[in-house]
Amino acid sequence: MYFCCRRYEQMRGVETRAKHERREKQQKANLSLSVKEVWKECTGISASGLDRMEWTSNFAHHIKALECDDSWNLEFDDKIDPKNPDPGWRTFMWCSSAWFKCSGCKRSWPSNNVMVAFHMRLMDKEGTVKVKRFRQSCKICSNAPMETPDISPENIDILMEKLVQHIEAKCYGKVVNFGSGRSAPLKVRNKHEPEHCEGCKAGVCRRGGI
């Protein structure tokens, strides 16, 4: 009887710790999103505007290391087709990790299968990079819209480092050691669901299409 009680208490303790860890992860995700909401209230800059600033400033930092005389600009463009770039454009894709938040039920979820596509072109000493972040939809809400991933500054930095390496190789013809660096993964409990992944539907997700 004593053994059974002790075993029950141990199992309850493990279950309680697991619930606490899940609650902490959710709170961190909500905090990250709420910080952007507070920033909007204080500065008038939207979360998407703040996100754009993070990407462009990080890109400017990494492109400066090339020490080239060309000017480079980065912009978001959800219309680009990663498989069919326009003439003169080079492509690069990377799988990152990010959080998503449903605009309907406000549920948040992590994913380690977030595809990001880049199209790049250098013409007349002016370089342009177009970025498409593949979205995901909430699996609970019916007819849920596709949501834009919230990629951490750490993973944006990794993305920009890899992007500039590909610019060196594809736009300047340099020999580059790409290394084996990967995006910082998140702890994900559920399996990737292709029916809710824009990358899978486009046939570019590393987990395959549907």
From TrEMBL:
The coiled-coil regions, if any, are none
Query: Signal sequence span per UniProt?
Result: none
Tell me which InterPro entries the record gives.
R-trans_p, ZAR1/RTP1-5-like_Znf-3CxxC
GO terms of biological process kind: protein insertion into membrane; protein targeting to membrane
Q: Can you name one GO molecular function term for this protein?
A: olfactory receptor binding
Q: Where is the 3CxxC-type domain?
A: 95-203
What this protein is called in its record is: 3CxxC-type domain-containing protein
Q: What gene is behind this protein? A: LOC101063606
